[in-house]
Amino acid sequence: MHLLILEFINNMKIFLQNLFLKKSALSGFVFLCGLLFLSVFIPFISPYEQDIYGAVHFETAGQPPSFSHWFGTDTAGRDMLTITIRAGFYSLKVAFGVVFFSVLIGVPIGMFAGVASKRIDEIIMRITDGFLAFPPLILPIAITAALGPSLNNVIIGISISWFPWYVRIARSQALIISSLDYVSISRSMGAGKLHVIKTHILPNSVSPILTQATIDAGYAILTAAGISFIGLGAQHPDVEWGLLITQSRAQFINHWWEVFFPGIFILLTVASFNIIGDELRNTTNEKRLNSG
Amino acid sequence: MFRYFINRLVLMVLIMLIVSSVTFFIVRWLPGDPVSLWVGDHPTKDQLEVARENLGFNKPVYKQYLSFLKNICTLDLGISLRTRQPVMLELSNRFSSTFELVLFSMLIAFLIGFPMGLISALKINTLYDYFIRGLGYIGLSLPVFWLGMILQLIFFGVLHWLPLQGRYAGFSFLDTQLTFNSGFLLIDSFFSGEWSLFFDGLKHIILPALTMSLGVLGVVLRTTRSAMMDTMNEPFFKTYRSYGFKHGEIIRKSAYKNTLVPVSTVIGLSFGLMLGGTFLVESIFDWPGLGQFSVLSILTSDFPAIIGVTLLYTATYVIINFLIDIFYALVDPRIHQ
Q1: What would the pLDDT profile of A238-263 be if each residue is shown by its tens digit?
Q2: With an 8 Å Cβ cutoff, are A245 and B15 in contact?
Q3: Which residue of A lies nearest to B222 if distances are taken between CA atoms?
Q4: Is the ipTM of this complex over 0.90?
Q5: Across the interface, which of A127, A129, A225 has its CB nearest the CB of B143?
Q6: Cβ neighbours around A41 below 10 Å, total
Q7: Cβ contact A69:A97 at 8 Å
Q8: How does pLDDT run across A83-116, given as a tens digit for each residue?
Q9: Which of A126, A230, A260 is facing B283, going by the closest CB pair?
Q10: Which of A213, B13, B82, B231 could form a disulfide bond with A99, CB atoms 3.0-4.6 angstroms apart?
Q11: What distance in Å separates the CA atoms of residue A90 and residue A154, rounded to the nearest whole number?
Q12: Do A252 and B140 touch (CB under 8 A)?
């Protein structure tokens, strides 16, 4: 087991080294870290920390951006800067939650399918095909509606809809790696399936899964914002970007700042995840090309 | 070739079956009693019982499932509990308006994205290329509902150029009789010669179509660019180069064909993505399409409607992918063999 952890740490080191070689990926990484830091500590920094918990100040309602309220205020008089930053915390929670659960469910099933007998593999793959044939967004919305509207249920809903992608990646990785010579030699010397998964397949699957997970983290935020937008996601005193935008729908033609800033933050966050994921894919492809 | 089509056909039916079954059981798990939707507010116990009996919700789930499968085979999707219209009728009324919107935005995305991607591959690592790549990232990362609202803000709120929402200015055209009826407003009004309606419809479709196209535009841009770059590394391209042909000339006359296969794949996939993703755009622009219908159905646990919508989406998606496979065979004869 400790070998596995060492391998993982080594992979992470290469991952971070590669990442910082590219300026664009670095700036995305810095943005995400900054957002995480600020959104966690915003209650201690902002003078309007009560707004995070749903305070109402009608005397300051609907003000455009100014020195005291950089992003303006919403219809309840909350400081948009404070709640927009705070909403980042919930969006990052969705991103990590969705990726965590999808990987946790998808990867073991996929690897099992890759080393299992042909019939079991076939059954698992047809079931995942069924999941993937659903129109996107409809399945997460239906599951969230079934569980009841809340941000945690959005995480569950998206994870259930997306884990089949990880089944596919893990399975194809398992198939590729178990066809390599050293793996068949190790099997001929009596290595069991579990051993092959643990020592050969898993360590070699880290980088494609990590790449997919990074990109998906961004899309999870986008999807969750959409679900919150129709009212099934985060609920009022909580703040979430999609929810903030939908709360301002009635007056956004006159109050552009209430809609503009949360959207810009969604855009920047999702783009950061996308850019990092792309760089990751490029570096792993280069590595493969150089070695092969 | 024939066996290939049969295989694909069987697979299509299988996927539809899985999707409808999964939907059937998820829907049974939704909170809220569908019967209460049917009987309205403040029902008596007897009314509930009678309705449950009539709608068949009192039978065990596996029996409901069997009769559901039987109905599906005869294309009977039941009656919507919310609108009390046959689901089939509701869907056919709304499908054309959503399809029109998706087609229009697909057209925008392709007409802009494809040439831009080709040029971007030619001018790699120039300022233009960086701009295109940036645009690609923005297209992929933008929340559509936000983009829609910002466009409304600019073109309706500030510039007053385009209408805020809707499919056409309803009251002005109450008396307009169309001689051509396909359900696609733009085509119908065009062939009926109702020019004012045609231009009104065009004005109304621009903003929602633009909103939806940007996401696909990003995908088309990136795919075209990377496919073109791969093609430029191929021996045939280098041979042409060594004969002294210019890059642009080779691409215009021959090399662009190599990018059509990946680009058409992407377009097919995003078609499904768009169809499923219309509801956010439809709710912002008040577009009378499938997206709104499906979300309302889910929110009110209108069982037959949810299943109908999902089946329709999936069928469209599967059929489009099927058509694209045929298109491959036409574009690239190697796949044909």
Answers
A1: 888 988 888 888 788 888 888 899 99
A2: no
A3: A278
A4: no
A5: A225
A6: 12
A7: no
A8: 888 889 999 999 999 999 999 999 999 988 888 8
A9: A230
A10: A213
A11: 11
A12: no
